[in-house]
Amino acid sequence: MLLTIKTTRYPATDLGYLLHKHPAKVQQFQISAGKVHIFYPEATDTSCTAALLLDIDPVGLVRKGPDSNEFALDQYVNDRPYVASSFMSAAIAQAYSSAMNGRCKDKPQLTEEAMPFEVTISVLPVKGGEVLLRELFEPLGYEVIASQLPLDTQYPEWGLSRYFTVTLRHNLPLQQILTHLYILLPVCDNDKHYYIGDHEIEKLAEKGKGWLDTHPAQEIITRRYLKNIGALTRQALEVVLKDEVDEAVTDKPLKDKLRLHDIRLQTVTDILLELQVSSVADLGCGEGKLLRLLKDNPVFTRILGMDVSLRALDIARSKLKLDKQPLSQKDRIQLLQGALTYKDKRIAGYDAAVLVEVMEHLDELRLPALEKAVFGCARPAHVIITTVNAEYNVLYEKMQPGSFRHADHRFEWTRAQFREWANGVAARCGYEVSFRDLGEIDPTHGGPSQLALFKILMN
User: Fold this and answer.
1) Is position 218 within any domain?
2) Rounded to the nearest 5°, which phi and psi values hold at 144?
3) Which terminus of the chain has a lower count of CB atoms within 10 Å, N or C?
4) What is the edge-to-edge ordering of all strands in the sheet holding 115-125?
5) pLDDT tens digits for range 441-456
6) For the domain that residue 70 is a member of, what is the CATH number?
7) Is 118 exposed, middle or buried (0-12, 13-18, 19+ CB in 10 A)?
8) Residue 409 to residue 357: CA distance in whole angstroms
9) Are residues 54 and 174 in the same domain?
10) Cα atoms in the 13 Å half-sphere on the side-chain side of 448
11) How far apart are CA 189 and CA 125, in angstroms?
């Protein structure tokens, strides 16, 4: 199977620096499935093409494959040696590892430069046809040229196959193109040759950073990348994509899609500063975006992040760089695993508790348990809760009536429903509550998000 990358950016031979592969040499790499050959069919100042030829060892595949299979002959009768699949993704990751990680030793300035690239994949299986192929690549800005191959050239009456020769054109940094290919090639094929576990969520989060969270086909990409394993897909959508996924349904520019979540976090931070609190518990902290804002302000002397997902906490720990903090800061930030539907004394004793876009991920039947855990057991002086405003959904042209903004949302409330619930909690638990809209306000439908601020009533 063959993948070529071509550029006409002058001098085009800079492609060799980016890929860490000299145009005058033919290089070979051994991977578990066979051999990778890198060579340059052309290398001039005006046009340079790097070719990656993956030579799969079919006998080796059988020997290293599983002992049993749903189809007894599948390990012998398959298309794996001849098509671009997860084997090609593995070859890209190994042969072009420096370029994928944004490293260029001799010309580091090239890594962030957008260049005109043309990528050609000789035989790509696409379960979903050309429609899916375009749904995956066109939202990322690619020009897609797809030629569907016949089942058999000698028998045209048999019709077309699910295999395509695909050319992709775009002006992007090479690192972005390689990460797109790494994720989307096995998504097209809807299969992977290796074991899928929790570690794959980390890969998806790393390689999908900056584009997957706003991709309109993010759900199918996530599901297929994780080999249609429902539990892992739900975890990935919750942990990796939770923060911005509800903005992906808009038709606004990317900067506007990301702005709403920034508004939520900044508004919450501003309220905490106005309240003059010193200790904050971020309940359902995810990968720690709010924690990073709080960490940068010395006013907050004690910060807690709690989430049900260990994977989310690992990401938060890494991004907060807790292992590199000085001794004086070691006890300032604490991360805990826990669920908001159980009483937990570890979250008690904080001036304020924050739940940013968390409650809609719980079943409505579990909200009384959340009320007891947060307002009864923890009982902070202040509680800030944000949630989506269902009334605003009609302004998202791509949303179907009755659908939710996120695959893991269990409900989405109107402003009236949210106020009814919050007023009930305040009355039962001894708080007063006020409300505000978040984001760009529509005169009829309000803001895309809504916020409730609870203050405890002093006896």
Assistant:
1) no
2) -110, 125
3) C
4) 27-31, 34-43, 48-56, 2-7, 115-125, 160-172, 143-150
5) 889 999 999 999 999 9
6) 3.30.1610.20
7) middle
8) 10
9) yes
10) 23
11) 5
